[in-house]
Amino acid sequence: MNEIFLLKLGEIVLKGQNRRAFENCLKGNIRRRVKHFGAFRVYLKQSTIYVEPEDGDCDVDGAWEACGTVFGIASMCRCRPCEKTLDAIYEAVLSYLGDALSLARSFKVESKRADKAFPLNSIQLSQEIGGRLAEAFPQVAVDVHNPDYTVHVEVRDYAAYVHGPAQPGAGGLPTGMGGRAAVLLSGGIDSPVAGYMIAKRGVEIECIHFFSYPYTSEKAKEKVLELARLLTRFCGRMTVDVVGFTEIQEAIRDHCPEEYFTLVMRRFMMRIAQRIANDHGCRALVTGENLGQVASQTMEAMAVTGAVVDMPMFHPLIGMDKEEIVTIARKIGTLETSILPYEDCCTVFTPKHPKTKPELHAVEIAEAALDVEALIDRAVLNTEKVTVKYYDD
Ligand code: ATP
Ligand code: MG
After folding, report:
1. Which of 86, 149, 197, 219 is least buried, going by the fewest C-beta atoms within 10 A?
2. Which domains does the chain have, with CATH numbers?
3. Model-wide pTM > 0.70
4. Ligand 1 atom 7: the closest Cα is on which residue?
5. Cα-flanking dihedrals φ and ψ of residue 42, to 5°?
6. Taking the CA of residue 48 as centre, how many other CA atoms within 13 Å lie in the half-sphere pointing to its CB?
7. 393 in helix, strand or coil?
8. Do the Cβ atoms of 101 and 107 come closer than 8 Å?
């Protein structure tokens, strides 16, 4: 094989007793992700996962990109494997990194010798390869303190590997190790980012979307399913529960005081989400709420909304500025879809003067006119389950 990937583990290396389980989970996630791009061998040795194409038909660039979205990997590099001899290592550096090196202003060689049987230590190895390269590329200066380009040489168990600068991995923990949570996914900028952040902590996610046809359009639903699909690039396939919410919104409009519309509506969302989450084996709810962003996201409003839920609720964006959220949305590729201009059910029947410091008992009185349980039962029955995955195969 003339090119393989070395993926370095992140926080997993800190997991004492559970480490093996984390590593196995991560290997499984990588295998699942790269198989779309051909036959790859995925194995672990010395805290590093090797991803090796088994034949010439593999789409190596596709697999590389896919590995960059797998949580649990701190850094990654594409390498040329070679025999564990000085001549073979030097030849590999020349053929694999020669072009990049010739464009650099300065360079150094950094070596690691995991195989202690190799006759040179890492400093001697760097000096030897660096010396030969300095002769071959007289126009590129040697600079061991602040080089423009670093040639890496790793002498490991099976072979030696040469590579250029490593690239950051997706970080976080392997998907599946942290249990499962349900993300309340709207069509906005925030909730997909919230889902991504929770998934990054090793949590498998399912999404729930409240849909108020005809107040919100079929296009709005497609947009949310597309957002979920974009998330599956990082967290694997998922189910989106699309809950018919029209009857509940109309009942609120017809029977509750206007200033409480949004709060009562959000309490319905949470109750239904909790019911669905339990059915899916989810242990927490996740929202894109952000302190002070809108009237329903004050501490008092969030207390009133959270009062109907008895599982943990996570709001990973709670303390972030919009700009920070937008930066992540752009990085994970959801921003463009999020800003498409379709209505969300939250913007239907919005009160002119919403309560920003509601009291729980007043909200309970406001919703007393409704048959809450019956409305929830019907909405849960009126739920469409859609399986979403990144690739069509
Ligand atoms: P977003 O950008 O995620 O839409 P937002 O700033 O517009 O958030 P709200 O509309 O008040 O805020 O919603 C707060 C949170 O409630 C959302 O982040 C999402 O988790 C959840 N939510 C709102 N509308 C829906 C919906 N139609 N379906 C599912 N969840 C929703
Ligand atoms: Mg919204």
Report:
1. 219
2. 4-168 (3.30.2130.30), 180-388 (3.40.50.620)
3. yes
4. 188
5. -125, 115
6. 20
7. coil
8. yes
- Residues lining ligand 1, CB < 6 A? 184-186, 188-191, 208-210, 287-289, 293-294, 296, 344-346
Quote the mean pLDDT of the chain: 94
Decide if pLDDT at 15 tops 80: no
Q: List the residue whose alpha carbon is closest to atom 14 of ligand 1.
A: 289
**pLDDT single digits (tens) 216-261:** 889 999 999 999 999 999 999 999 999 999 999 999 999 999 999 9
Please check whether residue 74 is in contact with residue 90, taking contact to mean a CB–CB distance below 8 angstroms: no
Ligand 1: which residue has its CA nearest to atom 1?
188
Q: HSE on the CB side for 286, CA within 13 Å?
A: 27
Residue 348 reports pLDDT greater than 80: no
Q: Between the CA of residue 13 and those of 22, 161, 187, what are the distances in Å?
A: 9, 22, 37
Residue 229, both tokens? 């699909």
Which tokens in the block code for residue 107? 């360079």
Residues with Cβ < 8 Å from 194, sequence gap 6 or more? 183, 286, 287, 288, 314, 315, 316, 317
Q: How far is residue 375 from each of residues 197, 210, 366, measured CA to CA in Å?
A: 32, 14, 15
- Tell me the pLDDT tens digit for each residue of 121-163: 999 999 999 999 999 999 999 999 999 999 999 999 889 999 9
- Ligand 1 atom index nearest CA of 184: 30
Residue 393's pLDDT is what?
63
